[in-house]
From TrEMBL:
Family membership: Belongs to the peptidase M24A family. Methionine aminopeptidase type 1 subfamily.
Gene: map
EC number: 3.4.11.18
Record protein name field: Methionine aminopeptidase
Role played: Removes the N-terminal methionine from nascent proteins. The N-terminal methionine is often cleaved when the second residue in the primary sequence is small and uncharged (Met-Ala-, Cys, Gly, Pro, Ser, Thr, or Val). Requires deformylation of the N(alpha)-formylated initiator methionine before it can be hydrolyzed.
Binding-site list for substrate: 83, 182
Organismal lineage: Bacteria, Bacillati, Actinomycetota, Actinomycetes, Mycobacteriales
Length: 262
């Protein structure tokens, strides 16, 4: 079932979204060469606690993971793209790091992800990869209008991937959210315009294009959580929580300027 949110409820989600965006900006700026992933995890825990927020990841135990997940942020490096479990790893110059973060504040959830390139040694192909997911996210958001179809969002995302030659995995994508992190509907990163669910004002969605420089297949780490590109190629992932309103899409996790890319 899809719950349509009132303007007041969307405003409450936006409060959570602002905290999510601020946290991602803070941690992205700290992701420098020599920083251990566990330092970022510990800082995230402190920020969550100080804000009185509730992590959506802590104790999360879905069917696809080896639960429960005992961290408050997903940190995925290089060929890791989704559900990256923070561990003892020191970031190096040129590492591609995705930070994915979701919390609940006063009963309302927001979820977002950013990918940054650590340090100064930037492979142009990695920059292009990250930027393509950001462009795809913007295209998906622009398609989220009342009277449209869910397939319009999916097609807008996959069109950007196709233009730049990236292959899209349709297994993991975006989702509804609101009172909990994962609600209906599933939002595929691949689809056809004019198909699927009718988009209505009051829907709140997490849109999250992600892909790799190479394979669209994933393999799972021994930790039971971290998903990596099957061919070991670098990956990127961009995500916003949005609301569909009568006047168009509203981004509830507005980006802060913390990118390391030039």
């Amino acid at each position: 079932m899809i719950e349509l949110k009132s303007a007041h409820e969307i405003d409450k989600m936006a409060v959570t979204g602002e905290f999510v965006a601020d946290t991602l900006a803070t941690l992205s700026a700290e992701a420098e060469p020599g920083v251990n992933l566990m330092q970022l995890e510990r800082h995230a825990r402190t920020l969550v606690s100080d804000r009185g927020a509730t992590s959506c990841y802590w104790d999360y135990a879905p069917s696809f993971g080896r639960g429960p997940f005992r961290n408050v942020i997903c940190l995925s490096v290089n060929d890791a793209v989704l559900h990256g479990k923070p561990h003892d790893y020191v970031l190096g110059d040129g590492d591609v790091l995705t930070l994915d973060f979701a919390v609940s504040i006063d009963g309302w959830v927001a979820d977002a992800a950013v990918t940054v390139i650590v340090g100064d040694s930037t492979d142009p192909a990695d920059s292009e990869l990250v930027e393509s997911t950001e462009r795809a996210l913007a295209a998906g958001v622009a398609a989220a209008v009342p009277g449209g179809r869910l397939g319009d969002i999916s097609a807008a995302i996959s069109d950007v991937a196709a233009e730049t030659g990236y292959r899209v995995n349709a297994e993991f994508g975006g989702h509804g959210l609101g009172r909990t992190m994962h609600e209906d509907p599933h939002v595929s990163n691949r689809g056809r315009r004019g198909r699927g669910l009718l988009l209505r004002a009051g829907m709140t969605l997490a849109l999250e294009p992600w892909w790799a420089r190479g394979s669209d297949r994933l393999v799972i780490d021994a930790d039971g959580w971290t998903l990596r590109s099957a061919d070991g190629s670098n990956t990127a992932h961009s995500e916003h929580t949005i609301a569909i309103t009568e006047t168009g899409p509203r981004i509830l996790t507005p980006s802060r300027s913390a990118h390391h890319m030039t």
